[in-house]
Design a protein that fits this description.
This protein is of the alpha+beta class. The chain has helices spanning 3-34, 43-46, 50-56, 68-73, 83-86, 113-117, 141-144, 147-153, 158-163, 166-170, 174-178, 205-211; strands at 125-126, 138-139, 181-185, 191-195, 212-219, 222-229, 244-253, 263-268, 296-302, 307-317, 329-338. The strands form 4 sheets. A 4-stranded antiparallel beta sheet has the order 8-7-10-11. It starts with a helix and ends with a strand.
C-alpha cells in the first residue's frame, strides 16, 4: 500500500470518528435543550401558572407535611411511613399506582407540582402535548388515570371502593369531583379548559354535604334516621381510619324547648387495626361501617312516652374522639321532627 493510499485511509477514519463524536454531541445537546430545566420545586411553575399556583397554595396537598393535624396524628412524623404520601418524591419514580417514596427537600410544598407532573425523562406531564410553551409538557394517559391518585389514596382502599362503584363504569373519576373543570385564561387572552387544584375533600363543608342525604321521619312507634351515600364515588367517609360520620338524636317532651343529652344512633367509620371495641352502636368489633356509594343505612329508634319531637344531627369528624365543640367536627345537617 503506497503512502498516498495510507494517508487517505487515515484521514477517512479520523473524519468518520470525528463525525460520530459530533453526532453524539449534538444528540446530547438536543436532549439537554429539551430538558435543560431541572424540575424540583412548585415555585418554578408559578410565573406561567399563577392561577393554578394560587389554588394549590393553602390546599391540603400543599400543606400535607406542615398541617398541624397531620403532624399530631403522625406523632410529628415519627411514624415515618406517613411521609411517603405527605412528602412524596415524584410518582414516576416508583410508577403511577405504586407506593411512593419520601423526599427530604421542599418541606413546605407537601404534594407539589413536581410530585405529580414530573415525567420519566425529566420533562413534565400534562393533559396535552404543548411543545411550544416553556415547560413543553407531554400528554400521558398514566398521569391522567386514577392510578395517579392511587399511589397515595389507596392506602385504605379508596380507589378500590371507587372501582367497585357505578361511578367507575360511568367514567366518573377522581378528578371529576376533586379537580372539577375550570376555565383558564392564557396571557394572550385566549381561553382553555383546565382543572381546579384546590382538591376539595373532607375539609370542605360543601363537598361533605353533597356526599350524603340525611333523612328523618316517624315510622309508627319509632323514628327512622337514614343516611344515603348519594354523592361520593367511594365509601362515606373514606380514606383514613379516624374519619367518622355520626347520626345523633334526642327527644323533646312537652315541658322542654329542646331535648336533653345527645345519643349516638350510628357511626360510619373504619376501625383502627388494634381497636378492641365496636366503632359504634349496632356494629361488631372490627366491622367497617363506612357507607359504600349509593348504599343506605337506616336506624330505628323507639319513641319514648311523652316525647313531642325529636331533634337530630349529622356530624362529620376528622378524628373519632373529638367532641361537638371541636374544630375537627363539622355539623352537616340538623333536623327537628314533631311527633
Amino acid at each position: 500500500m503506497n503512502f498516498s493510499l495510507r494517508l487517505g485511509l487515515v484521514i477517512g477514519v479520523v473524519a468518520a470518528f470525528g463525525g460520530a463524536i459530533a453526532y453524539l454531541s449534538a444528540g446530547d445537546q438536543g436532549l439537554a435543550a429539551a430538558h435543560k430545566t431541572r424540575w424540583e420545586s412548585s415555585v418554578q411553575c408559578k410565573s406561567c401558572h399563577e392561577d393554578v399556583y394560587a389554588e394549590w397554595t393553602g390546599s391540603h396537598h400543599q400543606i400535607a407535611f406542615t398541617n398541624p393535624e397531620v403532624r399530631k396524628l403522625s406523632d410529628d412524623f415519627r411514624k415515618e411511613e406517613c411521609m411517603d404520601c405527605h412528602l412524596p418524591r415524584p410518582l414516576v419514580i416508583t410508577g403511577f399506582g405504586s407506593r411512593t417514596l419520601p423526599r427530604r427537600t421542599h418541606f413546605d410544598e407537601g404534594i407539589s407540582c413536581i410530585s405529580c407532573h414530573l415525567g420519566p425523562d425529566g420533562g413534565l406531564l400534562a393533559r396535552n402535548d404543548r411543545p411550544e410553551v416553556p415547560c413543553a409538557p407531554k400528554r400521558s394517559t398514566d398521569f391522567l388515570a386514577v392510578k395517579s391518585c392511587e399511589s397515595c389514596h389507596n392506602q385504605h382502599w379508596t380507589t378500590d371502593q371507587w372501582r367497585a362503584s357505578p361511578y367507575a363504569a360511568q367514567g366518573t373519576d377522581c378528578a371529576s369531583c376533586h379537580m372539577p373543570e375550570v376555565t383558564r385564561v392564557r396571557k394572550d387572552g385566549s381561553k382553555r379548559m383546565g382543572r381546579g387544584h384546590v382538591f376539595h375533600g373532607s375539609h370542605d363543608v360543601a363537598t361533605l354535604k353533597k356526599a350524603g342525604k340525611f333523612e328523618v321521619a316517624r315510622a309508627g312507634s319509632e323514628v327512622a334516621l337514614t343516611l344515603t351515600n348519594t354523592g361520593a364515588g367511594h365509601n362515606y367517609p373514606t380514606e383514613e381510619r379516624h374519619r367518622a360520620v355520626d347520626m345523633l338524636y334526642r327527644f323533646v317532651t312537652a315541658d322542654q324547648e329542646t331535648g336533653g343529652e345527645w345519643t349516638l344512633a350510628y357511626r360510619f367509620r373504619m376501625p383502627y387495626r388494634d381497636e378492641s371495641t365496636p366503632v359504634g352502636p349496632g356494629a361488631d368489633v372490627q366491622e367497617n361501617t363506612q357507607l359504600p356509594a349509593f348504599a343506605t343505612k337506616t336506624v330505628n329508634v323507639p319513641i319514648p312516652a311523652g316525647a313531642v319531637a325529636v331533634e337530630t344531627r349529622l356530624w362529620y369528624r376528622l378524628t373519632p374522639f373529638c367532641g361537638d365543640d371541636s374544630p375537627l367536627s363539622t355539623l352537616l345537617e340538623e333536623r327537628r321532627v314533631d311527633l
